[in-house]
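Before relying on records like the one below, remember that each one covers exactly one chain. Contacts with other chains, cofactors or solvent are not represented anywhere in the record.
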Amino acid sequence: MKKYIAEAIGTCVLVTMGCGTAMLVGCDAASGSGYLLTALAFGLSIVAMAYSIGNISGCHVNPAVSLGVYLRGGMEVKDLIGYVVSQVVGALVGGVILSAIFGMGGVVDMTGGLGSNGLAGVGGNALAGLIVEILLTFIFVLTILGVTSAKFKHGSLAGLVIGLTLTFVHILGIGLTGTSVNPARSFGPALVAMFQGNGAPLACLWVFIVGPLVGAALAAVLYNFLEADEA
């Protein structure tokens, strides 16, 4: 149970700090600094959580990561389900926290939807958005599988590498889809935004669920092949 609680806490922190930064600074093309601040907020959230809850749950805080680990044989199906449920709950709590802070404080949400993902950067084209999310998640999960592989002892550097990689994929992805690579991170803010009267993020939510899961599965299959080939 403690690992599920850790996953919920970690995902809540990721959503609160990452989406919260996007809401505060904005991520439009005219605000290049907003891109970098948001990318860093997401990446540093992972670094912080990796070195705090990583020894308890592994700090997946992302259903796509959990799927990749499962397909690598790193967890049982019951834990996969428990992790995903915990991550979604954590993301929802993060969305509620942001809604309360920005609502009570009268702070303008520069994203208009609690930092939810969208397809505006790809002209509303769902296929283009899907490709972006598959590609970015593939890179992210492949890095995680490599840096945490038992064959390569990266030790204390793993959390830093993973956090920097999340920052890396955000730098490209923010201007295209807002960068999900994490179904829970997309679902939580979108659902809370709906209850605020903004249901737009839900219309394309499937892209940010299917894309990351497909990208993670491809990364796991490829890494299984590559590692076995090197054995």
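The radius of gyration is 17 Å.
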